[in-house]
Amino acid sequence: MSHTKWMKRAISLASLGNNTTSPNPRVGAVILDKDGNLISEGFHYKAGMPHAEAMAFINLKKDAKGGSMYVNLEPCCHQGKTPPCVDKIISSGIKKVYISIQDPDKRVSGKGIKLLKKAGIQIHLGLCRKESLDLNKAFIHRNITKKSFGVLKWAMSMDGRIGLKNGKSKWITNVESRSLVHSSRAEFDAIIIGGNTLREDNPLLTTRGFKNPEPLRVVFTKSLNLPSKSNLWDCSKAKTIVIYDSSTANEKYLTRIPKCVEVVKVSSDNPELISKILAKRGCNKVLWECGPRLATAAIQSNCIQEIITFIAPKILGGENSMNPFGDFKFEEMHEILKLSNAQVSLIGNDIRVKSTLKN
Ligand SMILES: NC(=O)c1ccc[n+]([C@@H]2O[C@H](COP(=O)([O-])OP(=O)(O)OC[C@H]3O[C@@H](n4cnc5c(N)ncnc54)[C@H](OP(=O)(O)O)[C@@H]3O)[C@@H](O)[C@H]2O)c1
Predict the structure, then answer these.
(1) Is 153 exposed, middle or buried (0-12, 13-18, 19+ CB in 10 A)?
(2) CA 181: distance to chain centroid?
């Protein structure tokens, strides 16, 4: 029972790094002395800063000899930006280590545990496994698939419309929902839109100061026909990358993009390419805030793992009003997309539903 309590404490410490640890995982560590008293704790805040275990040793109030450690992810055994944590644990004289899950990186997975065991330390693996997998699902997804964990968000009316047929859509949701969208962007390493959303909405795509630096802003375009004036070209607020499909783009439009914006060429319009590029840059979790066409393509290429839908108590009507998606070309009901784990909350009088998409 108390083992679970201490592991839950480690997980809750780990979550203090929710918006800051990427590309690293969220990790927390707790140290008890040989009599079971809490003598230290720590969490990983940011890449390049001490790991959770190292922080716990920095914060140590008493000798850890004969004591135990609770940590939600297997301690590292390689020299990265900081020294290996297993060495510190071994030299501290700690006798038992409770680890929730193994490191998902196949090259190191299990090696940290092996070294600790070899040094005579008792290892207990698997405590609060479900919670730890959930906490680091984006990090794990990126390590295993080499793609960023994608969340698709859209706002719609009660009749499932995201805008009028003339493209007007400001505003479907209430002010509280919009401000929640701004602050929740802080959980993400990058925010992605398509060229058409840039042209139609000219969004800022920032957290409005909730995160510093702001998430990377990404525009995916097939045509490169982007305006020469855009909020995304103001690099003093956040970094922007334009990714374009060189098989369809007209490169004469490159002159419209200011020098501070990074431009990346890809060979097709498959959204998977974006997900892979962002994963390579260390983006664990990315938010797709695109319109129906790119959203449909992103789902079709397995770039979306979770969905956030805001539903406003409004009716837009109109056969030709905008839908959140294009045609998936389903012919049978068993082909349709299924969502699970729905979490529903009220934001003023809007409804927000968070759900998981089965890939
Ligand atoms: N209510 C909401 O939550 C919400 C959210 C976002 C957008 N919107 C609305 O949606 C409308 C835009 O819709 P949209 O579907 O055109 O969105 P979009 O987000 O601009 O995506 C489509 C654009 O993405 C680029 N693209 C790159 N690869 C693609 C691919 N494989 N498939 C499709 N597009 C690809 C193209 O840009 P290029 O044309 O530059 O080549 C294409 O025009 C706007 O009116 C906006 O207001 C609503």
Answers:
(1) buried
(2) 14
Architecture field, domain 2-141: 3-Layer(aba) Sandwich (3.40)
pLDDT for the residue numbered 92: 96
The answer to pTM > 0.90 is: yes
The two tokens of residue 347 are: 């934001």
pLDDT for the residue 130:
97
Spatial CB neighbours of 246, under 8 Å, sequence gap ≥ 6: 265, 266, 267
Q: What are the E-state strand segments in the chain?
A: 28-32, 38-43, 68-73, 96-101, 122-125, 149-157, 190-194, 216-221, 240-245, 262-266, 285-288, 306-312, 339-347, 350-357
| Annotated catalytic residue, options 53, 74, 214, 289 | 53
Q: Known catalytic residue: 200?
A: no
Q: What is the DSSP string of 112-159?
A: HHHHHHHTT-EEEE-TTHHHHHHHTHHHHHHHHHSS-EEEEEEEEETT
CATH class given for the domain over 146-357: alpha beta
Which CA distances in Å does 300 have to 271, 296, 337? 9, 6, 10
Q: Is 152 in the pocket of ligand 1 (CB under 6 A)?
A: no
CB of 188 within 8 A of CB of 287?
yes
Domain range summary for the chain, segments of one domain joined by +: 2-141, 146-357
The residue with tokens 């275990």 is 53
- Whose structure tokens read 């805008």? 163
Nearest CA to ligand 1 atom 3: 154
Q: How far apart are alpha carbons 351 and 195 in whole angstroms? A: 28
**Which atom, in ligand 1's list, is nearest to the CA of 193?**
19
Shortest CA distance to 256 belongs to which of 302, 292, 224?
224
227-245 per-position pLDDT tens digit? 999 999 999 999 999 999 9
Atom of ligand 1 nearest to the CA of 201: 47
Structure tokens at 269: 């319009």
Tell me the C-alpha distance between 167 and 295, whole Å: 16
Residue 252 carries which DSSP code? G
